[in-house]
Design a protein that fits this description.
- The complex is a heterodimer of chains A (374) and B (255).
- Chain A contains 15 helices and 4 strands.
- With 374 residues, chain A is mainly alpha-helical.
- In chain A, helix 3 (47-73) runs antiparallel to helix 11 (256-282), helix 3 packs across helix 12 and helix 4 packs across helix 11 (256-282).
- Chain A has one domain.
- Chain A has a two-stranded antiparallel ribbon. Chain A has a two-stranded antiparallel sheet with strand order 2-3.
- The longest helix of chain A has 27 residues, at 47-73.
- Chain B has 255 residues and is an alpha/beta fold.
- Chain B has one domain (25-253): P-loop containing nucleotide triphosphate hydrolases (Rossmann fold, 3-Layer(aba) Sandwich), CATH 3.40.50.
- Chain B is 40% helix and 24% strand.
- Chain B has a 6-stranded mixed β-sheet with strand order 6-7-8-3-9-10, sandwiched between helices. In chain B, strands 2-1-4-5 form a 4-stranded antiparallel β-sheet, covered by helices on one side.
- In chain B, helix 4 runs parallel beside helix 7.
- Chain B is globular and about 55 Å long.
- The A-B interface holds A 229-230, 233-235, 237-238, 240-241, 243-245, 247-256, 258-259, 262 and B 61, 63, 84-86, 88-89, 93-94, 96, 100-105, 109, 112-114, 119-121, 124-127, 169, 173.
């Protein structure tokens, strides 16, 4: 049954088939090369690399979420980093509770930063986060609920285009300021860190890291399939209709605000999941994740990869972040100029992003071998 | 006696507007406008720039609500209490002045999107095109042509073809009333002729209201004309009658 569904989703979609295959191969190969191949061998993948790749995949999931709303429905959110960070905080709170009395102050009841601030008891909103299931529910619910409330007002009032982008930006900025405050009870500017284990598994162990990596890849694949499912249904065509001609869609009898709200909330939940996988792998979450720059960077990944294709967003996120890792190592002060330059080049010369480049290359190949009669 | 005839007009009309006014910052775009459209009627509405033609369309389709006055559809549905999506589903289709189709979808997909049916998010997610729907799309292809371009992106169509596709999008929904805003603008003579034939063909099955500047086009429609001026009806009748009306001549030539 499930196989049947996946088959119908990927039927006649070579690019997506290839994408899922590569992703699954990587998700299995990387842990094998890390765990089973001795370190002295050249094909051994270091744990550092596994974590790095895991981080890229989280960003890829985030880019996928943004491409779904921007590429297909024309909603340019400049605040999607906020949903990512909220999912991350929900996971971080669970990981904080897992520390128990192993903190610097050895307080079994309170996280270190609360002891430091002289708090006597756990704030009510930290209740339940010792429970993994509850915390995971919050990973989905908190970003989803914020997106719902935000989207409800914005889309009902027909806020579109630049105006919407600006208020999403304001939203993430406001959250950043709030999370910087110590009184909020989320660790202020240090955020949440010093995590020890997840579900009892040591976060530093190679096995845990490989499992996290595998699960990140798996959720990326599942999220991709879900997005494909949306995009290929009539729902996806309504989204495109809203992007291309919003009032036409309205006069066709579609309630545009409901469609926007649905896809915005779905996208925010995906972003939250990405954040939840990100935090145990990088080992920290702080208010810096809410900075508007982060949200703008996501847009650049998607633009460079090619918007409105889903896999383009994934490729863009991975390549740009690989570039960032390399550049910030080699020429740290040049990275932001590079990023800006890339965006300009992509906008002017590659309006379809890297995906468009592939298409051009492929069509040139097809014309070179005119056997396929189309 | 007068009272009785207005009431029967309301009974018989598909669209009934009575004493409708709408102002923007003190400017009366629509001023005590009354208009009745009979089922199956093709009505042309002309008027100089600023006569309130587009505002009238906006009021009927729920994009705007009137300050005063009544707008009834099929004599018992109060249109002032519904929004655009509702009104579209009730059976009023609107064609924009600038041809508006979903450019990145194919011609077929444009028509499929407009098919009657539930418009909810989850219904759309699970939607499957049935034979009835396919048949309806075929019927519309028979009316508007374009069948050969079914799989082409709507954005690749010529101007006149987009106009016809947009009318097709409206027809698929099988509306009782079609509002068509300046369809002849920017079209070649041949395209204009095709369009006027198309509109004449669908009257009878649907009521059609055409707002237009182009007198040649109005003449080719060969139907009753209403002249709008400063937000209310100035004159009505056949095109010849209207053209001989002194006040109409004054309004058109005096500016």
């Amino acid at each position: 049954m499930k196989n049947g569904l996946i088959n119908t989703l990927l039927k006649d979609d070579k690019a997506s088939q290839r994408f899922i295959l590569i992703l699954m191969a990587v998700s299995i190969l990387v842990p094998i090369l890390n765990l089973l191949v001795p370190e002295s061998w050249p094909i051994h993948v270091s744990t550092y690399t596994v974590t790095l790749l895991g981080k890229y995949l989280c960003f890829a999931l985030l880019a996928l979420a943004v491409d779904l709303i921007w590429g297909y429905c024309g909603i340019l959110s400049l605040g999607h980093g906020a949903f990512f960070a909220l999912g991350g905080y929900a996971m971080g709170m669970y990981l904080m509770r897992q520390i128990g009395d192993r903190g610097v102050y050895g307080n079994p009841e309170l996280p270190d930063f609360m002891v430091f601030l002289n708090w006597q008891e756990l704030p009510w909103y930290w209740y339940g986060f010792d429970n993994f299931g509850f915390a995971m529910l919050m990973v989905l619910l908190v970003p989803g609920l914020l997106a719902f409330v935000f989207g409800w007002f914005a889309f009902r009032s027909r806020v579109t285009g630049v105006y919407l982008s600006i208020i999403t930006q304001a939203m993430t900025y406001a959250l950043m300021l709030a999370f910087f405050r110590n009184e909020m009870g989320f660790g202020g500017n240090n955020g949440l860190t010093d995590f020890k284990d997840i579900l009892g598994f040591d976060l530093q162990s190679d096995y845990t890291r490989c499992t996290l990596f595998f699960l990140t890849a798996l959720s990326l694949a599942l999220a991709y399939l879900a997005c494909i499912g949306i995009v290929k249904s009539k729902l996806g065509r309504v989204l495109v209709a809203i992007r291309d001609a919003e009032s036409r869609t309205r006069f066709m009898g579609y309630r545009v605000e409901h469609y926007k709200l649905f896809v915005f909330v779905f996208s925010a939940v995906l972003a939250g999941i990405a954040g939840a996988f990100y935090v145990p792998q990088v080992g920290i979450i702080n208010p810096g994740e809410f900075t508007p720059i982060n949200s703008i960077e996501i847009i650049i990944w998607v633009a460079i990869g090619g918007r409105g294709t889903l896999y383009g967003a994934v490729i863009g996120a991975i390549l740009v972040n690989y570039g960032k890792t390399w550049f910030t190592g080699a020429f740290p002060e040049l990275w932001l100029f590079m990023l800006g330059g890339l965006f300009v080049v992509a906008t002017i010369y590659l309006p379809q992003g890297i995906k468009g480049l592939f298409d051009k290359w492929q069509s040139r190949q097809n014309t070179a071998t005119p056997t396929a009669g189309a | 006696m007068q009272e009785h005839s207005v009431e029967s007009l309301a009974e018989k009309s598909i669209l009934y507007m009575s004493g409708v006014s709408k102002s923007f910052d003190g400017f009366k775009a629509i001023n005590n406008l009354s208009l009745f459209i009979k089922p199956g009627e093709l009505r042309a509405i002309i008027g100089p720039n600023g006569a309130g033609k587009t505002t009238m369309m906006d009021l009927i389709t729920g994009k705007l609500t009137p300050d005063t006055g009544e707008i009834y559809f099929r004599h018992d549905i109060d249109l002032t209490k519904h929004d655009e999506a509702d009104i579209a589903n009730l059976g009023i289709g609107r064609k924009f002045q600038k041809p508006t189709v979903i450019e990145s979808l194919t011609v077929f997909e444009n028509l499929e999107l407009a098919l009657q049916g539930k418009r909810g998010v989850f219904e759309s997610l699970l939607f499957k095109l049935d034979t009835e729907g396919k048949q309806r799309i075929e019927e519309v292809f028979d009316i508007i042509g374009l069948g050969a371009k079914s799989a082409h992106a709507a954005g690749s169509l010529a101007h006149g073809e987009k106009q016809r596709l947009e009318i097709g999008v409206l027809l698929v929904q099988n509306p009782d009333l079609l509002l068509v805003d300046e369809p002849a603008a920017g079209m070649t003579d041949e395209e204009t002729e095709q369009l006027s034939n198309l509109l004449k063909r669908i009257q009878g099955d649907h009521s059609v209201v055409v707002v237009e500047h182009d007198m040649e086009f109005i003449r080719s429609l060969d139907t009753e004309v209403t002249v709008l001026h400063e937000g209310s009806v100035l004159a009505g009748g056949t095109l010849e009658q209207v053209q001989q009306n002194e006040r109409v001549v004054e309004v058109y030539l005096g500016r």
